[in-house]
């Protein structure tokens, strides 16, 4: 059974480079329902743009907590 968490992410391109270089491995965010969550920075590589990552995203995990997908939600 998959789990879904929705987070607002605002990272500049420069901030994301720190994750990309491996200086930081985990991203910490607060979900829209108030939970603090941490997830591997590499899951964001498909949603980064020229100006970074800005918006609300739904992240899905499987029952064992492994990443499945990330999608922008409005």
From TrEMBL:
- Record-linked Pfam families: DUF2835 (PF11197)
InterPro entries in the record:
DUF2835
- Please spell out the taxonomic lineage of the organism that makes this protein: Bacteria, Pseudomonadati, Pseudomonadota, Gammaproteobacteria, Oceanospirillales
In Swiss-Prot or TrEMBL terms, this protein is called Topoisomerase II
Question: What organism does the record attribute this protein to?
Answer: Thalassolituus oleivorans MIL-1
Q: In which domain of life is the source organism classified?
A: Bacteria
